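FORM 7B - TANDEM STRUCTURE REPORT

SECTION 1: FIRST PROTEIN
SEQUENCE AND TOKENS:
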Amino acid sequence: MNYNRVFIIVLDSCGIGGAPDAAAFGDEGSNTLVSCSRSPYFDLKNLQRHGLFNIDARPLPSVEAPLSAYARLSEHSAGKDTTIGHWEIAGLISEKPLPTYPQGFPAEIIEAFEKATGRGTLCNKPYSGTAVIADYGAAQEKSGKWIVYTSADSVFQIAANTAVIPLEELYAACEKARKILQGKHGVGRVIARPFRGENGSYRRTADRRDFSLEPQGTTMLDLLYEHGLDSISIGKIYDIFSHRGITEFTLTHSNKEGMRVSEQMLKKDFHGLCFINLVDFDMLYGHRNDIDGYAKALAEFDTWLPQFTAGMRENDILFITADHGCDPATPSTDHSREQVPLLVIGKQVKPGNLGTYPAFSVIAKTILDNFGIANAIQAQSLLPKIL
């Protein structure tokens, strides 16, 4: 018996440490889940029952008879960002890292962007997203220029006060930047970072948008689409895959909204995949080194999970995983190179330890094999172990 409806929920940045090459990325010792466990708000009883702590995330307590199958996945691709992580979940390995700009973007890029948008720029250096609007917000408001900044990831971020520059113009500027940033300057994402408020109290709004580089190869979503199956996205999945291989999408602004839409999808008849990203863990808490906030968000998901699993049908299957780490306890506010958890939940899933795998792409391999779709993904299918 195979599965008609497949769900993937990505707990954005919920790594479990232990990446063999963490030191090469400056992330030795990072462990997002264990760091969050030190908070008094950390309460993941349901995920624990499903086997999350049975994965090598010690010192968290395991259970003797987990409800679900579980595994530990290492990232094969050369990166630790959202784009590369999700592409690998979907079966696409990125052998070369996407470009990063620790010294800011070269003049040729900035000049082309200013010419295309008709506005000047401020900053052009790596910066914290909340600090950059605090430091440059007043100048942006006065000058009408874009705040352009980056991070340790392959991103070109554009911040603007939407009381000064309309949101639609910000999105249009991101689309222009995306066309410029190709080839050797093909960053993973151009990100719209709208904010509001006054000097001293600027705050980012929930209208962020990601304009991703188009996947550099065939993904699981492409194959599902080509074979006439449903390929549904919730959250920023639609943007991460540059709108490709997706039959239906819902953009969301928070974990709460993402979980609500996911519950609604349970009530729909579809045949294929529903791919969900819950971004608050990363965006609101990991990058801001907010351990308690991260722990609370995990606890909220844990409380919600039984509602979701109760609505799953006999031949549904749910994969819960992550795309990278973002340890809120380290001095860095950037992503961390970590292994990620994999929980496989369903009424027909055989519980137990599935082991450790050298690529996130085992998820795509398993799903495509489930639907009988031929593919060239170099990964081991988990289907024989979980049926």
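SECTION 2: SECOND PROTEIN
SEQUENCE AND TOKENS:
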Amino acid sequence: MIQRRQTLFLIQLIFFGIALLFVPSLKVVSANTTVPVYLLPLSSDTFLATPGHIAAVVVNFSALLLSCIAIFLYKKRELQAKLCYVLMLLWLTITLMIELCPFVKLTESVTVVENTHFGTLIGIFGMLAAYLALHYIRKDIELLKSADRIR
């Protein structure tokens, strides 16, 4: 299970999802402070989270959960491949939400919201890891089909 390449890429997806929890995706500049915004539920007095931020948090946690589930489905390769398609879609969604959705409601105390682009970079690497996991799952499926033809 662990020695398979696709499992290593799925574990890498888990690490990318956890990294999004601790790497700031935005910086909110208010009158006197700069506050980083992570993909965790916000609790701040100076600004409020938007539904886009809450949706990005939910999508990130669902991608983490699906990555964990996909690792343990190594005997059901077809289902594992379908989950990788879903993971690629989730990581694309996370990347686009980080880049395009406003995560903070603009108020009079918030002057500037800056994107740090670290979250976008992690999202792109997440999509790449999901694609590579899918690629190696497909190679396993083809190998097993060719071995069944020989018997």
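SECTION 3: OBSERVATIONS ON SECOND PROTEIN
The mean pLDDT is 86.
The longest strand covers residues 110-115.

SECTION 4: SIGNATURE
Preparer initials: ____
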